Amino acid sequence: MHAASIESLIESFEQLPGVGRKSAERIAFYILERMSTDEALAMANSIAEAKQKTKFCSVCQNLTDTDPCKICSSPKRDKSVICVVESPEDVNALEATNEFHGVYHVLHGALSPMDGITPDDIKINELLLRLAGGEVKEVIMATNPTVKGTATAVYISKLLAPFDVRVTRIAHGIPVGSDLEYADKVTLIKALEGRREM
User: Fold this and answer.
1) pLDDT at position 198, please?
2) Is 4-53 in CATH node 1.10.8.420?
């Protein structure tokens, strides 16, 4: 049985995605046993400061501490191409490739009627407002290749039909460096559908 303050700390960490009871205990006891009070307070202050200063970019809805964010305000970005993603983490993953030079739109979720997530719960209307200006020429649907992500991409592409904009979907298929024999049936089908000229 833990002291009430320790139990409260463990329960706080359990709320994080992917952190179960054992991991939450390990994190809590690491902080209590191995971190100095100054280090623990610095961590707590970093969390509080990030929470207070972080907001949605008024253009792309990504998390930022400046508005508009650095990507939206960069003169080097091609604002005629918008890549639609589900989360800020997806922006970071795409940025790490150094291959995409357009701008983003973060939905903050995917449609899931079973979970009560409707179009009003994610940032779809904000995307439609961005297209009203006529500057956008292409929207790349880069939602996850899940049932929810695919349903969201299809739903949004139908909403974009009245706009004079090209709507594309990122390719799905075999990961680089893997063997065909280990790929599942759906992945192989997507890889065949997404084939292109060599």
Assistant:
1) 59
2) yes
